[in-house]
């Protein structure tokens, strides 16, 4: 008589239960690690791509300090809707930067600013009142805006950049003057601790809004999200 070893149904169920528990414990960590990698990669790619566009624009239009203008978005009508063709910031962007970028579509937002979408799923928009302050979304901008608002989600699904190549004489743009698009570093004192505090809490010199310095903190860490980063990023 040949004896065959086999698992009982109870043993199989216990094994499956253990596998399920382990998967439930490890899956969130794996998902977050993937989110981190995607955000890191797209941030670094955007930084390189947008500044390459600035350099190419300089070939055609001269030094960026000459053609940089701080302009506002579209006018709003009496019902609060953007008036087509009135956005000076969009005209400026379309002239100086858009020709050197791969853009799949452009959309006007309700606050008068605009959003440009890139092939990798990321997008970019200026704050409504300026061409100096920009928000980069490494993934679904609409999802981020729906959850946090047009200027929310900073350091999570939205990342702050500045384009201020001109010296305004205040000394607050030290890390932006003569440069292209840089992570938000207005009034930065040059220390990592300043970036960490500004990212997590706000309240430092230059801004009371948490999250603005998060992009600079990631750049400071060689475009890697630090282990002690205060937020769980998404895209």
Keywords:
about 240 residues; alpha+beta; 6-stranded antiparallel beta sheet; 6 strands; about 40% helix; globular
What does the model show?
With 235 residues, this protein is of the alpha+beta class. The chain has one domain. 38% of the residues lie in helices and 10% in strands. The protein has 6 helices and 6 strands. The chain has helices spanning 9-61, 64-67, 88-96, 141-148, 192-200, 214-220; strands spanning 105-108, 114-117, 123-126, 133-137, 159-162, 182-183. It has a 6-stranded antiparallel β-sheet with strand order 1-2-3-4-5-6. Strand 2 (114-117) and strand 3 (123-126) form a beta hairpin. Helix 5 packs antiparallel against helix 6. The longest helix is centred in the N-terminal third of the chain and has 53 residues, at 9-61. It is globular, with a radius of gyration of 23 Å. It starts with 8 loop residues before the first helix and ends in a 15-residue tail after the last helix.
Q: What's the short story on this structure?
A:
The chain is α+β, with helices and mostly antiparallel strands and 235 residues long. The chain has helices spanning 9-61, 64-67, 88-96, 141-148, 192-200, 214-220; strands at 105-108, 114-117, 123-126, 133-137, 159-162, 182-183.
């Amino acid at each position: 008589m040949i004896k065959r070893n086999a698992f009982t149904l109870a043993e199989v169920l216990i094994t499956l239960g253990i596998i399920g528990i382990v998967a439930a414990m490890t899956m969130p960590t794996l998902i977050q690690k993937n989110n981190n990698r995607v955000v890191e990669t797209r941030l670094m790619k955007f930084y390189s791509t947008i500044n390459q566009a600035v350099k190419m624009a300089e070939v055609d239009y001269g030094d960026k300090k000459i053609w940089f203008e701080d302009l506002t978005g579209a006018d709003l009508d009496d019902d609060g809707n953007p008036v087509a063709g009135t956005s000076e910031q969009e005209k400026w962007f379309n002239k100086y930067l858009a020709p050197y970028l791969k853009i799949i579509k452009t959309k006007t937002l309700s606050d008068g600013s605009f959003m440009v979408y890139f092939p990798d799923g990321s997008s970019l928009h200026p704050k409504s009142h300026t061409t100096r302050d920009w928000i980069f979304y490494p993934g679904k901008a609409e999802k981020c805006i729906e959850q946090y608002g047009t200027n929310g989600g900073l350091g999570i699904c939205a990342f702050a950049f500045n384009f201020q190549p001109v010296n305004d004489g205040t000394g607050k743009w030290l890390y932006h003057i003569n440069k292209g698009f840089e992570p938000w570093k207005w009034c930065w004192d040059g220390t990592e601790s300043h970036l960490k505090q500004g990212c997590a809490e706000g309240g430092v010199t230059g801004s009371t809004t948490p999250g603005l310095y998060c992009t600079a903190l990631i750049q400071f860490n060689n475009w890697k999200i630090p282990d002690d980063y205060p937020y769980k990023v998404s895209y």
